[in-house]
Amino acid sequence: MVVPALAYHKVAEIPRGAVYRANYVTPEQFITQLRYLRLRGYEAISFHDLLAYRRGEGELPARPILITFDDGYRSILEFALPALRAHRLFATVFVVTGLLGQTNRWDADELQEPLFSVDDVRRAAADGHDVQSHTRTHRDLNYLPEPDALTELRESRLELQQIVDGPVRVVAYPWGNPAHHVCRLAGVAGYDAGVILRRRVNFDSTSAFELRRIGINYTTSVSRFAWDLTRLRWRGE
Ligand SMILES: [Zn+2]
Fold first, then answer.
1. N or C: which end of the chain has fewer CB within 10 A?
2. CA of 94 to the centre of ligand 1 (A)
């Protein structure tokens, strides 16, 4: 089964002074992409759905898609998440549990924007979206001593489970490019899967701790979006 996953950060017009412009998709682009997905018959799935399928315990729709948001910017509650629901889709939001209600302070040189609060996490979940972990403080796990990396992973999972009152099984590694030992630590920390940033789709043979997500940003044209969804599968493993 071929399962593409998309990675977004913010859906908004790019504000003056933004440093990491690739974190933005405009509202107009986003709506065009959602219409494309619906038109082509894509159905949103959760990582729980994917993991159940991989265990042989569930079926996936003919054209499954994972739609994800990193960091949990509060602004996605206003436009992106409601727009998804209006198109009968939903997202997985990866939040930084130690910074709920604060800002993206790991990007000290970037405009600071509010992140989900604890209530926002519950609100998104109640709205039909899934919320999973993006670690405790968004440090680059590749460069942390292993015990510290393990704490970042494990504490985040336990904190988030308390908040959503349900299982947290998936981590989005900060910066999306984990070293092999980090993927192993995610398993030790109790996760069943981890997601990276790589312009490839997922096959049954793709490691659960290195599930690929295609980064979408303001430079992603409609034709590029369509090409990635229809042609990347032929790029193979
Ligand atoms: Zn991030």
1. C
2. 8
pLDDT at 237 over 80: no
Q: How far is the CA of 176 from the centre of ligand 1 (A)?
A: 8
Give 161 Cα–ligand 1 centroid separation in angstroms.
19
pLDDT of residue 195: 98
Q: Is the dihedral of CA 61, 83, 132, 165 positive or negative?
A: negative
Give residue-wise pLDDT tens across range 30-40. Answer: 999 999 999 99
Helices 222-231 & 27-39 angle (0-180, nearest 10) = 40
CA 210 to chain centre: 13
List, for residues 147-178, the tens digit of each pLDDT value. 999 999 999 999 999 999 999 999 999 999 99
- The type of residue at 2 is V
Report how far ligand 1's centroid is from the alpha carbon of 235 (Å).
27
Distance 163 CA to ligand 1 centre (A): 20
Model confidence band, residue 79 (pLDDT cutoffs 50, 70, 90): very high
- Residue 73 to residue 30: CA distance in whole angstroms: 16
CATH architecture for the domain at 5-13+40-235: Alpha-Beta Barrel (3.20)
Question: Cα of 31 to ligand 1 centre, how many Å?
Answer: 23
Cα 56 from chain centroid?
Answer: 24
Domain ranges of the chain: 5-13+40-235
For the chain, the residue count is: 237
Which alpha helices (H) appear in 80-235, and where do they start and end? 80-86, 118-126, 146-164, 180-188, 222-231
